[in-house]
């Protein structure tokens, strides 16, 4: 009986995905791999621009198609290294990206919060297009000009991760202990040249 129930759940998952017009991934792992990141000058500060590879495994794809919101965190930090003490923290910024599937319109929504807490939303026909949006960070203000000094050296770190704490409460225990729901990038570190 339990085997029959499991097969029904799997079949209904695949049927639901097929009804949405999406082809399920055959990949069983999740990936966020940051390829590049830089700080670009603005009139009053610096903006983070980054590119990464993002791929969902089967479990995450099915969850999105069933209506789970996936919350991703962009975590940026700039420090000034010190030789004999802890690094001097200059700026720490965290921004949220939410991926949501709207079943009635069959649209994937990517919702971003910018530095001024203004919410921006874009819609996509396919999950792969939504993933491409999540993989790209453009003009995210992370620093003011007066936060940095010309004669200092700085180290920047970027991390992108799935926030499993934002999943439904009843599902969190399973999700936190399962590798199917683990999705985190490497700590991408570089030394920005802020005063070109």
Could you explain the architecture of this structure?
The protein is an alpha+beta fold. It is 22% helix and 41% strand. It contains 4 helices and 9 strands. It has helices at 2-19, 58-65, 127-134, 169-177; strands spanning 31-41, 45-55, 70-80, 88-102, 107-113, 119-124, 136-144, 155-162, 188-190. Strands 6-5-4-3-8-9 form a 6-stranded antiparallel beta sheet. A 3-stranded antiparallel beta sheet has the order 1-2-7. The longest helix is centred in the N-terminal third of the chain and has 18 residues, at 2-19. Residues 1-20 have low confidence and may be disordered.
Topology:
Blueprint (H helix, E strand, L loop, with lengths): L1 H18 L11 E11 L3 E11 L2 H8 L4 E11 L7 E15 L4 E7 L5 E6 L2 H8 L1 E9 L10 E8 L6 H9 L10 E3 L6
Antiparallel strand pairs: 1-2, 2-7, 3-4, 3-8, 4-5, 5-6, 8-9
Structural class: alpha+beta
Number of helices: 4
Largest sheet: 6 strands, antiparallel
| Low-pLDDT regions | 1-20
| Helix percent band | 10-25%
Which tags fit this structure?
single chain; 196 residues; alpha+beta; 6-stranded antiparallel beta sheet; 3-stranded antiparallel beta sheet; 4 helices; 22% helix; 41% strand; elongated; disordered N terminus
Give the structure's gist in a few sentences.
The chain is of the alpha+beta class and about 200 residues long. The chain has 4 helices and 9 strands; from the N terminus they run H-E-E-H-E-E-E-E-H-E-E-H-E. It has helices at about 1-20, 60-65, 125-135, 170-175; strands at about 30-40, 45-55, 70-80, 90-100, 105-115, 120-125, 135-145, 155-160, 190.
């Amino acid at each position: 009986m339990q085997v029959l129930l499991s097969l029904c759940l799997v079949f209904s998952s695949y049927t639901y995905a097929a009804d949405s017009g999406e082809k399920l991934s055959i990949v069983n792992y999740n990936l966020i791999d940051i390829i590049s990141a830089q700080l670009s000058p603005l009139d009053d500060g610096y903006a983070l621009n980054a590119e990464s590879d993002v791929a969902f495994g089967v479990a995450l794809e099915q969850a999105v198609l069933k209506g789970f919101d996936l919350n991703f965190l962009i975590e940026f930090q700039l420090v000034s290294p010190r030789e004999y003490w802890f690094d001097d923290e200059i700026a720490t910024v965290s921004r949220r990206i939410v991926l949501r599937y709207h079943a009635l319109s069959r649209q994937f929504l990517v919702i971003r919060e910018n530095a001024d807490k203004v919410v921006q939303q874009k819609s996509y026909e396919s999950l792969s297009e939504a993933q491409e949006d999540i993989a790209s960070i453009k003009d995210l203000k992370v620093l003011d000009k007066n936060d940095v000094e010309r004669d200092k050296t700085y180290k920047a770190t970027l991390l992108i991760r799935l926030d499993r704490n934002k999943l439904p409460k009843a599902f969190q225990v399973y999700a936190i202990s399962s590798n199917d729901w683990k999705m985190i990038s490497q700590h991408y570190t570089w030394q920005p040249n802020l005063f070109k």
